[in-house]
Amino acid sequence: MSYRIEIAQTKYITELPEISRVAAELFPVEDLPLALRSETNPIEVFEEALSEQKLWIAVDENQDKAVGFAFLSDKCGQLHLRELGVHPEHGRQGLGTNLLKNVIIWAKNQKYNQLSLTTFRHLPWNAPFYTKLGFKMIEQSKLNSCLNKLLDEESKGLDKSKRVLMSLNLNS
Q1: Residue 153 sits in a domain of what CATH number?
Q2: How many domains, in total, are found in the chain?
Q3: pTM above 0.70, yes or no
């Protein structure tokens, strides 16, 4: 298969909620309850990220179809990875890594100092994956009030003890 990573184009936006939904099926039910699996970001959220040039996609060039995405927002005075998702049929191809590397390069070029995200501590394709790319876990006791609120919001309906906020210093 042949893929490309690029800043998103409008024509792919409608495919992103489905990628998010099917990627959620990879999570164990004890981590992501069935009731939450179909919750995805609305199209309007992706459109806003697109308008801000903060949405990247992985495109299957053979089908001209989006198969993965990463999008950012500004939260707590820093850049925040809202979601990184790859369709399971296209998993294990390095797409998540390549999407994230593109995001990091862009963020450095835009002179951001930090990139944060929230994720599960214990799942191999979550915190351990981000750690390999240089992200560091920030324990909840060390979070400022804004980041603590962000962790709470993104842990809604989940076991917060399994969640962590991670940050990457973009100045190194």
Answers
A1: 3.40.630.30
A2: 1
A3: yes
